Amino acid sequence: MNIFQIVAIGVMAAILAILLKNHKPEFGIYISIVAGLIIFLLVLSQLQSVIEILNQLAGRIDIEDVYLSIVLKIVAIAYIAEFGAQVCRDAGEGVIASKIEFAGKVLIMVMAVPILVSLMDLIINMVP
Amino acid sequence: MDFIRQWIVTILSVIIFITFVEILLPNSNNRKYINVVVGLLIMLVILKPVMGVINQQIPFGEEILQNTNQMEMMTVKNHYNHVDLANKENIINLYKQQLKEQMLDRIENKMGYPVDDLRINIVEEEGETFGMINSVEVYLLEEKEAENPKGVSDISVNVVIDGKKNNKPDDDSILLNNEGDEIKKDLSDFYSISQDSIIVTLLKNKK
Fold first, then answer.
1. Which of A46, B66, B108, B198 has the fewest CB atoms lying closer than 10 Å?
2. Do residues A68 and A124 both lie within one domain?
3. Domain total for chain A?
4. If residue B134 lies in a helix (H) or strand (E), which one and from where to where?
5. Residue to substitute from B11, B19, B23, B60, interface A, most A β-carbons within 10 A
6. Contact A67 B44 (CB under 8 A)
7. Buried b (16+ CB within 10 A) or exposed e, B41-66
């Protein structure tokens, strides 16, 4: 099972990081970053298939593809930004992490603006 | 009746889709922003058929694409402006470089004075005077002793004002006028700049 691999990698990385903390604290950061990357890559393929199925589902629903593809893009942006921010936070760089989160928010807002504008148009058109 | 059935099915499927997406979302600060977007989307899906009843069907997909395109165009425009600025800076630098090489060539090869450094200050603001030369600073190297005219023995000039050496750009330099005048005249004739804005300095040989 995949989950055993992931948990094993995580626990091993944690033990290694604790062992190294007394002698070389900087290596602990490297270990946590690499373990995080490995786990993310292991899950990435699964996540990809889930998103593909969601996309197929969206194709069956009788609304424009644009809406659902925007939602999926936003989810992807949130994931990537969250991952980068966590890696930075693990390395003790909270400031950079918050900047990454800020960039994620800006990109999500950029994605949302077209929906917002068309909703506004719709409501304004409905008012007699 | 079929129309209402279609509407309900669409709303239900969108809500199911979004519930599934919510499971996927990471537990981060971004969650609330995503919820805002999802809420807007649900509003749009619910309101769209109402709009269809009241008014003619409006192609929202197209409108969203149009808005997206508009935003992308604005982003590209910003990019373009940025690149334009960088380009302008490059052009000015290239122009300065070419001007410097040309002046060096004139002074060194045509007049035969060895040049240590040449600094050009040009108008960089856009306008009618764009690219005009503000001032030129020429730093000449001292010539060989054999070329000393009329066999005059070495003269050491040391200008001291207020108890300290005031020669520029460094303390080893002296100012000679006869060479300076020739260079000034030539440059001011060729580039049509006033002689006052040309500064010629002779550097003493560094031992």
1. A46
2. yes
3. 2
4. strand B133-141
5. B60
6. yes
7. beebbeebbebeeeeeeeebeebbee
Kindly state whether residues A4 and A38 are assigned to the same domain. Answer: yes
What is the distance in angstroms between the Cα of A116 and the nearest Cα belonging to chain B? 7
Domain enclosing residue B38, as ranges: 2-58
Residues B51 and B101 both lie in one domain: no
Q: What is the mean pLDDT of each run of 10 residues along chain B (207 residues)?
A: 82 84 78 86 82 63 78 87 88 88 83 82 79 82 56 54 50 56 80 81 68
Question: What are the Cα distances from residue A75, in Å, to A57, B25, B41?
Answer: 16, 6, 14
Within a domain: B34: yes
Among B36, B43, B68, select the one facing A114 at the smallest CB separation: B68
Query: Are B20 and A54 in contact (CB < 8 Å)?
Result: yes
How many domains does chain B fold into? 2
**Tens-digit pLDDT profile for residues A15-30:** 998 888 888 877 888 8
B41 contacts A122? CB cut-off 8 A: no
> For A27-38, how does the pLDDT look when each residue is reduced to its tens digit (9 = 90+)?
888 888 888 888
Specify the 3-state DSSP secondary structure of B38: helix
Q: Are residues A40 and A99 in the same domain?
A: no
Kindly state the average pLDDT of the residues A51-75. Answer: 78
Please name the member of B21, B43, B58 whose beta carbon is closest to the beta carbon of A119: B43
ipTM (interface predicted TM): 0.74
Q: Residues A78, A38: one domain? A: no
What single-letter DSSP state applies at residue B55? S
Distance separating alpha carbons of residues A41 and A24, to the nearest angstrom: 27
Residue A36 lies in a domain: yes
Q: Is residue B153 part of a domain?
A: no
Q: Does B159 touch chain A (CB under 8 A)?
A: no
pLDDT at B170: 47
